[in-house]
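Hi F.,

I've been meaning to write this up properly since the lab meeting, where we talked about keeping a consistent format for the predictions we share between groups. The idea is simple: the sequence comes first, exactly as it goes in, then the structure tokens exactly as they come out, then a line or two of notes. No screenshots and no reformatting. I'm using this chain as the first example so we have something concrete to point to.
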Amino acid sequence: MQRAKCGRFLIPILAGLALGAGCRSSGEADRAGQEPAATGLGRVVPGSATPVQAEPRLDWAEIGPLEYLALLQERQTGVGRSLELNGAPVTLPPFVTIWEPPPEGWLAPRHVDALLAVAASTEPCAGTVSSLSSVLPRESSSVGREALFLVEGYRRGRYPPALSSVDAIVPSLGETRAWWRRQRGESP
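Output, unedited:
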């Protein structure tokens, strides 16, 4: 009878991550006279208006790719998330967590031209992070980057195409436009 070997490695790794992150337990926070931790990521910085918490799930039937891009623009003006790691306060930039991917066909050819029209924009906006990601973004994204991330999702047949739009390597605007011209049968 064979036993799975991953269990004996997974538990020490998870325990090491929890200890290495310097996160306080809710009991430690209570003893320090503070509110308990809002999440396993760290304790909420006292006086912070926005703890790290789960976002509501997006209703993909009610929001298309262009509306999603507008949502990311709106979220940029929101307050970043503050927490404490290893005794130091950290403020994360705004981002939207994708808990469930949109249905097949959510990104369609009809969206690509509109997304490419704004892909050169450097206007700051919130980034996109998959709920599967173990890394949170340290910087904001831009409307152009998110538009290219959406187009890359169409190209790969899934959105999001990577765990984080901020950290993903996405093709340049020129490469993406050339790809789109080829897809439409146009000459370069």
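Notes:
The longest helix spans residues 6-20.
Confidence is low (pLDDT under 50) at residues 1-53.

If this format works for you, I'll send the rest the same way.

G.
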